[in-house]
Amino acid sequence: MATISKINELSPHRNGWTIRVRVLKKWSEMIDGGGDILRFLLVDDHLHEGDWKIITGFTVELSPPGFRFAMNHHTIIFTGNTNLQRSWGVITDHYMSFKNFRSIMNGVYTSNYPIDLLGYLDGVGEIEVVTDHTFTLGDNMQTSRVTFTIKDLEGRTLECEARGVLGIQLYNKWWRHGGTETFITMSDWMVYTDRGTNEMKIKDAGGISRFEFNALYQDVYEFRAAYFNESDPTGIESDGSSVELDWSP
């Protein structure tokens, strides 16, 4: 069997790589000039194990300047020779690495790749229709937008927005929850600077962004317990795989 390489070992200087990865997310995007491109976000056991694929017959290129979907600077390109085979894996809680609100507000995460967040969902605004020049499915370039705020354990709040179908899903789910206390996990969202207020805010990164309410993760149990100043109501002990949260002021 061919030698299996780590994702962080890949480079565009040769072909013939073989990797074993978990397909974390799959989504499609429209590209300039027409047509769609199918994107994947992959992770290997350098981070953790999950559901895995052995992939051969692909090429590696440097990611173009600007926004990218992961910290890795390389992009894997599937070709007609690419082959995917089922492989083994171990299910884990999640792959997210939740960022500290204070660091976000101080401009630490103004990088070109998405981040993950965990917080208390403090409020959700009404659905608005806005002009978005990146939205090309209609001639008027209009899409839906929903703004919402999330709060950390020290009372810091971040203003967030979700557009398109994602925003409508968040709005509908919020109102279905009614008066239920909601803790939200957000995977792969973007930090940006509001030009009007110079504040750091959060927005979705297109098809890669996800959210979940009151997820059954140890991190959420611990956050909820600390938020309400109570012991962990689940009685679940961490097995060491949970992401450590920085709650310092």
Automatic annotation (TrEMBL):
InterPro entries hit by this protein: NA-bd_OB-fold (IPR012340), RFA1B/D_OB_1st (IPR003871)
Pfam families: DUF223
Replication protein A 70 kDa DNA-binding subunit B/D first OB fold domain ranges (all copies): 6-45
Annotated protein name in UniProt: Replication protein A 70 kDa DNA-binding subunit B/D first OB fold domain-containing protein
